[in-house]
Amino acid sequence: MSANDSPSGHQTKTPATRDSAFLKACRREPVPHTPVWFMRQAGRSLPEYLKVREGIPMLESCMRPELVTEITLQPVRRHKVDAAIYFSDIVVPLKAIGIDLDIKPGVGPVVAEPIRRREDLARLRDLTPDDVAYVTEAIGMLTGELGPTPLIGFAGAPFTLASYLVEGGPSRNHEHTKALMYGDPQLWADLLDRLADITSAFLKVQIEAGASAVQLFDSWVGALAPVDYRRSVMPASAKVFRAVEAYGVPRIHFGVGTGELLGLMGGAGADVVGVDWRVPLGEAARRVGPGKALQGNLDPAVLFSSREAVEAKTREVLDDAAGLEGHVFNLGHGVLPSTDPDALTRLVEHVHTATAR
Is the pLDDT score of 1 beyond 50? Predict the structure, then answer.
């Protein structure tokens, strides 16, 4: 099956994976305990990660199936989280179609030639499964190792990918991105539509290889007002969610600083809406509305406090989630690099114990 085809009754999950606490929570079904995983759970907070990545550039590490498998499994072994997330980076599909970019340590993705004119769109060709054959290989290896533990695939949302491409790298104010969005709305719409197709193809590759759920990261979309999100971003994100709907895997949508956008982000087609630490889960549920599970939302910085403080703040999150239709415990953003790994392990154990049913 091509990554551009629409599946029919496609099933990649084993019964054991389907009955996992994580997938049950995503489907808003009763769970034996609140499932836990962490954004950036595989990465710089783990000494074993730093050891295997030593001397290997980030993008190269994403293209080595055996290395990807090992890094993805590390937090599952150490923390006993309820789901693994595929180790990659949101710019991998852009690199795979030939965009000249690199991930510079301490900076992030840097694009050699920003995309700001209509003729630049020609550089964004379709993504094929052959472009990311290493992803298919790695996920095949991973699902064999993970057994009943689900694997989450992921991709960057069209707006966030566009912001890197237009700015040429990370940006605090997104001035070039917004200038294009406001100044040439047709070019902007065409850019996001092209990125939606690339993102959809990348997610399909992961699902067809065996991912049990997918998360769309719109990391920077919190920079927009709701009216601009609805008009200029939501159509492209909705296109991505529609493209993978027929697979029947849970679709998670997450962004940072998106309190004012939560309802719209759920409306774009997600089954689960990720919430950062700024909005209590009860209020987030009111904004998102019924029919969606929520994911979140402990402040990552809390993990630098005492064990008692971590448990107290965790209890606040769990209490706030008590009336939700479905809840996946997570941080409100990614694990910070200098986080003590033992704090994460204790947090998983505490959530499991406190919510055991």
Answer: no
